[in-house]
Amino acid sequence: MRMLDKTETTARLPWPALLEALREMFRTGCEAPLRHRHPLPQKEAAEGSLLLMPAWQAHRFTGVKIVHVNPANAKQPGLQAVHSVYLLSDGESGQPLCILDGGTLTDRRTAAASVLAAGYLARPDSQTLLLLGSGKVAHALAEAYAARFGLRDIRIWSRRAESAAKLAASLAAAGLPARAVATPDPAGADIISAATLSTTPLLAGASIAPGTHVDLIGAFRPDMRESDSALVRRARLFVDTRPGALAEAGDVVQAIADGSIDANHIQADLFDLCRGTHPGRTNAGDVTLFKSVGWAGEDLAAAVLAYESEGAG
User: Does the structure show a pLDDT above 70 at 312?
Assistant: First the structure.
């Protein structure tokens, strides 16, 4: 059985190939139930979580991402709160084929899904990216957007200014036009991508200029949000999957709850966009909004790509 660590997992998931692998998975589909969550007792925290995210294509591959979320780890220096691995198996025999670094796979497929959507929803001439957040997903987002669009300016904001500065310096050292900014001001941004743990709105509908594409990643629970309801109501709303968005996407769930929109406000999901049943952006002046919460089919697509890359097996 193949073991792929963080470095090798990254090398086997280059952005162009990963975007195409996700596009093909959304075109063809797979079985991917909503994630399983089980509470785990913690000695020094109220509760941890064990998350299981399975997906499979009959007679081809099965996969499951196993995630431990242990908040108590924050009290131990050098120990991260989230650990994950991905197990890929043969879909016919069940034989284990490969174990991949789950964190790296998640970061890269999350960024790739956002940029895949942006290919349909952002203006093709987009040059300025405003990035809210400074964690590992934010780093992957900057790389993925830069690989897809001709970016001339990447502005990075975080509640922790030192983290934004550190990420900007790392990206600049890699040749990307990144700089830290003091506020999350959306003025002049062609694309805004948010990957935070915010529970209060960072973006207001009234502040977003016509033609902007907004990409919201962080609010993966109903009690979280990165935008106000006015923005969700104003924008043409797209999601990664309808069941996931309606069950978990805080920006969408809360806008429905307060009466700003109903479920029919969702224009399309990534299945529709990738299959060509919805054209995506049709007007340069539209404000488009893509809200994702993650789909286990994305993990499976990424894992298969990494496994089948040259030298795997």
Answer: no
